[in-house]
Amino acid sequence: MRVRVLYFAAARERAGTSEEWLDWEGDLTVEELWREVVQKHPSLGSLTSCMSFAVNREYAPKTQLLRDGDEVAFIPPVSGGSSTEERAV
Amino acid sequence: MIELVHEPIDLNRVLTAVANTGAGAIVTFIGTTREKNEGRQVIRLEYEAYEPMALTELERIAREAQQRWPICTIAVVHRLGEVPLGEASVVIAVSAAHRADAFAACRYVIDELKKSVPIWKKEFFEGGEVWIGTQDGERLPPSWLSIPEG
Asked: Do A76 and B133 touch (CB under 8 A)?
């Protein structure tokens, strides 16, 4: 199985690349893929707690099983910018 | 009109896109780049997007707003790349028969945009740079999207 992995923003800088293909034998979930890429790029590890995931351009749960040819994006917190109300909470 | 652009946003184009003879109001939101953030003197800002997914998410948000309020048209344009201080990074315009609906829908679109659209902002300030939101552990997504450390 082959999946295309995309990195953005802080994840892109830490991985040192914006995309790569990863080959895998057998079943693989989004979470397992993340663990693989953290092994490959250890500086991604500290982003684990704030990372979201997308499969084929839609947000996906970490338990989602990947299929051959899937496009997986690792999504750090989006640019946000809090409103004053959020700050007050 | 849902667009990501790499040049200054043309406000007139956005307004023209929502002009409608059935509308009694057009509400706009313009997000601009601020020179001070959390006490830091900002030098410049850069925006990066997962473009195809950002467009899909923006279209979903605009569709949701259309379903929630009786509005005519929505336009969203987000600028990417370097945005000089004081310039618009995002413009939202909503036309509706009545202003209350236009205000509510416009507010909804910008708030949802900030939560889920994969666009990131890097702040360059005196003495460093930071991806906003990525200070480790500062903002957590819904728990079903996150993975425990380890």
From this structure: yes
Query: Alpha helix (H) ranges present in chain B?
Result: 11-18, 51-68, 99-116
Which B residues in the span 68-127 are in contact with A, Cβ-Cβ below 8 Å? 111, 114-122
- Asked if residue A30 lies in contact with residue A66, where contact means CB atoms within 8 angstroms, the answer is yes
Model confidence pLDDT, tens digit, residues B78-121: 999 999 999 999 999 999 999 999 999 999 999 999 989 999 99
Would you call B141 exposed, middle or buried from its count of C-beta atoms within 10 A (0-12, 13-18, 19+)?
A: buried
pTM: 0.86
Which residue among A9, A50, A51 sits closest to B48, beta carbon to beta carbon?
A9
ipTM entry = 0.86
- Phi, psi angle pair for B49, to nearest 5°: -135, 155
Q: How close A4 gets to chain B, by Cα (Å)?
A: 14
Q: Which two tokens stand for residue A28?
A: 């693989």
Instruction: Report the alpha-carbon distance of residue A53 to residue B57 in Å, rounded.
Output: 14
Q: Is B37 helix (H, G, I), strand (E, B) or coil?
A: strand
Whether A78 and B140 lie within 8 Å, measured CB to CB: no
- What is the C-alpha separation between B122 and B108, in angstroms, rounded? 24
Interface contact B136-A52, CB threshold 8 A: no
Closest CA–CA distance from residue A52 to any residue of chain B (Å):
5
Tokens at A74, concatenated: 């690792």
Residue with token string 């600028």: B79
